[in-house]
Design goal:
alpha+beta, 20 strands
Length: 571
């Protein structure tokens, strides 16, 4: 019966089952890992977009800072003379931002008009007469018409709704300044014009403005965020590029394929959208984010392109290597099973030959006693049963079933489960020809084995209590003794969440005691007590204190005498 279990067809069936299980686990973990990593990539791209968006918005707010900071100074100007005295301060504040290099001001009354353009080069500023296109822009606001007549011919053109003269009520003294903003095309270049208009107490009208060349603006934005992993561009409501990494496109019409499609998804702020597209600038896949950007009354749109992170490309490699790893692991397990089977068959054949020779020798010599013959047969059966325990596939099948259920619930715990299962079988397949191993190794096996049982039975199995004295840890125990007693306790007792099974391992005198609560099952078939017979026989083989077991109150106890490392089997 034993030999039939190890026939080739049984081995092939077991090998195929293991291979399919490992392959299925690897494929499942790979797919789940890929989905999660792609989501992480989108989350990372969103963080990059948020940082880039904040940088752009802060810079544009900074462009308005000079105009806003002039308000306290303006409130102290009551006349033309006050304004002339404060011109150096006004120029310094107006061009305080490093990205702003051009501004102008105009002060007009019924007599004359004072026009000046301010330009900044590094720390130096220079002033010169107001250019024609700036005068045109200034003329659309409520100033005395006699002094602000534009030139007859102008190479500039005003674009956008602010090009039409406003219809607001005339300005009154001490009224907060009115900010006007729009785009102006001049000599094939586009300018962002920002202007505040206010009325002084002496009835003069003060206009202060900024002139931001969009090409220069793009240069400045590149210098602000040189290490960012995203690039941004801004468009007007009618699709004109305000900024773009490709300077040739600034001021040009945006093509239709740059606009959001119906597949775009909304972010949590409900106003921003994103989708994955092919960037016409980088010619690679990017995660594109669209969000409104309202600056100085301009209803612009901010677009941020974040290249699909390299981690997404690495995911495919990781998935491939992960699947290969599981297949390789399955091959290793199969190799060890085949190796163990071959070795067992060889040893079994050798033992049969040895037994036959021993029997022939006993017949010929009749010099050995009946007790010696019985002991030899018993030792052979003991070794055979030990090997059967090593090769028993039931525990492996139960463990794989638990692992299959665990993968969906907790992938991280499933990984620990696989490692524990691997450690148990690695230990079981070790060659302990002497029948003994260290107490320390037995403790490690007991903990690994109990972890697998705990995953399977959950709260029906109480945590393992282990308290073994330090002097016992360096001694020896029969191979797989603690594991066998834990297995018997689980096999022969009722396990439930209401009455969980408690197992305790501790030192007591020269013994290591394995105790468990006793609540016997009635549906367990007689196992022949092979585990207890194995322990009893091995202690008889090595001599010394006997192996003891029995019931004490409501607890079943097994007392395992520790065997010193120097002790050898009795002859």
């Amino acid at each position: 019966m034993s030999a039939a279990i190890y026939r080739t067809r049984y081995f092939i069936a077991t090998a195929m089952l293991l291979f399919l299980c490992f392959s299925a686990i690897g494929l499942f973990v790979s797919v789940q890992f890929g989905k999660r990593t792609r989501q992480i990539s989108i989350d990372m791209a969103t963080k990059v977009y948020q940082l880039k968006s904040d940088v752009i918005r802060n810079e544009f707010k900074g462009f308005l800072k000079g105009l806003n900071d002039l308000e306290p100074v303006r409130q102290q100007i009551n006349s033309r003379q006050d304004f002339i005295q404060n011109i150096p301060l006004i120029e310094a504040i107006l061009l305080s931002h490093p990205g702003v290099t051009n501004g102008w001001y105009a002060l007009t009354n019924n007599k004359d008009t004072l026009f000046h353009t301010i330009s900044k080069q590094g720390r130096d500023r220079e002033s010169f007469p107001l250019t024609a296109y700036r005068r045109n822009w200034t003329n659309i606001f409520p100033l005395p018409s006699a002094t602000l007549t534009p030139p007859a011919a102008s190479p500039s053109a005003l674009t956008g709704p602010a090009a039409t003269p406003p219809t607001a009520n005339p300005l009154t003294p001490n009224q907060p300044p009115v900010i006007h903003s729009n785009l102006v095309t001049h000599n094939d270049s586009t300018h962002w014009m920002l202007t505040t208009t206010s009325r002084l107490p002496d009835a003069s009208t003060l206009v202060i403005g900024l002139d931001i060349n969009l090409i220069q603006l793009q240069h400045y934005l590149w210098s602000v965020d040189t290490t960012g992993r995203a690039y941004a561009f801004i468009t007007s409501p009618d699709g004109i590029y305000i900024t773009h990494p490709d300077e040739k496109l600034v001021g040009k019409k945006m093509p239709e394929n740059e606009k959001p499609t119906a597949a775009a998804k909304r972010l949590g702020d409900s106003v921003s959208q994103y989708e994955t597209v092919i960037s016409s600038f980088l010619q690679i896949p990017v995660v594109r984010y669209y969000t409104p950007m309202n600056i100085a009354g301009m209803q612009w749109n901010l677009v941020v392109d974040t290249p699909v992170l390299a981690v997404v490309e690495d995911v495919n490699e990781i998935e491939k290597y992960l699947l290969l790893f599981f297949m390789f692991t399955a091959g290793i397990v199969l190799f060890f099973i085949a190796w163990a089977q071959t070795r067992w068959q060889k040893e079994f054949t050798l033992r049969q030959q040895a037994e036959l020779q021993q029997q022939q020798l006993l017949v010929k010599t009749q010099s050995l006693s009946i007790e010696a013959e019985r002991q030899q047969k018993h030792n052979a059966l003991l070794q055979l049963n030990t090997l059967k325990e090593k090769m028993n596939p039931h525990f492996l099948f139960n463990s794989l079933s638990s692992l299959h259920a665990l993968i969906e619930q907790s992938p991280e715990l499933a990984q620990s489960f696989v490692m524990k299962l691997s450690n148990v079988y690695r230990y079981v397949l070790n060659d302990y020809s002497g029948g003994l191993t260290s107490v320390e190794h037995e403790m490690e096996l007991a903990n690994e084995y109990f972890f697998l049982l705990k995953i399977r039975f959950g709260n029906a199995l109480a945590p393992l209590e282990m308290d073994i004295a330090a002097q016992h840890r360096s001694q020896q125990l029969p191979f797989m003794s603690l594991q066998s007693l834990i297995e018997n306790a689980v096999k022969h007792n009722v396990l439930s969440k209401e009455n969980p099974l408690h197992i305790r391992i501790y030192s007591e005198g020269p013994y290591i005691v394995v105790a468990n609560t006793l609540k016997l099952r009635h549906d367990v078939q007689d196992s022949g007590k092979q585990g207890l017979n194995y322990l009893r026989s091995i202690y008889q083989h090595f001599g010394g204190l006997p192996f003891l077991h029995g019931v004490e109150e409501n607890t079943y106890k097994c007392l395992l005498p520790v065997i010193p490392r120097s002790q050898r089997p009795t002859q």
